[in-house]
User: Fold these one by one.
Assistant:
Number 1:
Amino acid sequence: MTAEGCVRVAAVGDVHLDADVLGRYRPALEHLDGKADLLLLAGDLTRHGTADEARCVAQEFGGLAVPVIAILGNHDYHCDQQAEVTKVLQDVGITVLECTGTVLHVGDVRVGVAGTKGFGGGFAGACASEFGEPEMKAFTRHSRELAERFGVALAELECDVRIALTHYSPVPETLLGEPLEIYPFLGSYLLAQAIDATPGVGLAVHGHAHAGSERGTTPGGVPVRNVAHPVIKQAYNVYQLSSVLAPA
Ligand SMILES: [Fe+2]
Ligand SMILES: [Fe+2]
């Protein structure tokens, strides 16, 4: 926490670790406690979602001086080893969320983080619906169900300020730079609806859109930050939560 009482949130996503990437982030993380109060990992932690790659993530991001909270991304599901990937991360003290939340104490401030991978479907005026073929219904239903459960997790946090952590984007602004044609595979307005439904969300962090833009805002006014490593181009960004620290 800063002298002014700001909570400092470090975040990065899409680190896509494998053995050849080991060590890229660690030097910048060694003294993180002087710069941030917690670190968020916004999914796509591995390249193909293998347990071996997860062990690289554990080596790179485990045992830090600040709490580390992660969600998985689509790459982390690729080999159907997401349960093992999760366990490897948990074994080194990383909190892994999926439609769940956790509360940290930073000074006197209770900081709540709810997370989900989320899914696609698109944005208002150009989105998928649960209509037609079973495959289309399943695609849209997956997105809706994750957003709904994520919204409940966010609302149930007993804290002073909330942070929303997703892999897919809740808004189209942070996708700027990506081809318009793939927006429905990069995020869903349902995530923004879930974020805006609960008061006291100070920050929404996501990844997934490697060619997107860093900054956006939900329709309800919550700052959104795309922290995909190819976007922020450094080991992590730090965001300060100050204006939203009034008790919820
Ligand atoms: Fe990625
Ligand atoms: Fe992704």
Note: The radius of gyration is 17 Å.
Number 2:
Amino acid sequence: MQTQVSYRLEKSGQYGVELADAHCHLDLFDNPGIAISDARMGGIRFMITAGGNRLSSMSAISMADGDSVFAVIGVDPQGAEKDSNFVEELERLVKSNTAVVGIGEIGLDYKIDVDRGLQRQVFEEQIEIAKSLDMPIVVHSRQALDDAMAIVKEHMVKKAMFHYFEGDENQAVSLAESGYLISIPPFETSRRRRVINAISVGSIVVETDSPVVGRSPIDVIKTAEWIAQIKGMAFADVAHRTTENVKKLFSI
Ligand SMILES: [Zn+2]
């Protein structure tokens, strides 16, 4: 039986390139160590693992080795109710851990039953912390993109990645023009195809959000193949460019 990993090994060997998974949750894997080594064997050079509350942020820090794994830490909309006081610790944690490369995931989620005023307040507090540290933010937005975009622009954020981008091509172009990155998950939709068509590869990164959405960081290979096909580019170019975009945003 050919496993997914051996199949991907073959593919990455064939391509001879290495990709970055711009957003995953390694702490949610049953065995994060195996997930990381499988990803490395499968052609993934490094992963950005994201926290969203105190516990997951501390896990992200503990897994970040500054080589295969980097961490972003923060309080997401779900975490805003219980862990808003964790925001006060972010600055110290960022300063004492070199493998922490950003603040995230932070943002707005109108699908969940958490007070929107509180979500906004916690989002804005963390944007200001990121700005004071000259760090990028990783934005989570679900059914809230117009508001999330407006807040990021109002605060004149310089470095941001919109993770699991949910918007349309006009919103994508507007974000790309502001210098922000659009992160594409491993799910093909016609709307997402239009987004990929509308912006340059210089504004695109690939992610899996695994294990929540993708099964493994290796799934970025599928997304990069899809982007290459849509844009009529070589897979190796898409892999290289998207990886460079991640490196540049997070100063890796
Ligand atoms: Zn996520």
Note: Strands lie at 19-24, 44-50, 69-73, 100-109, 137-142, 160-162, 181-184, 204-206.
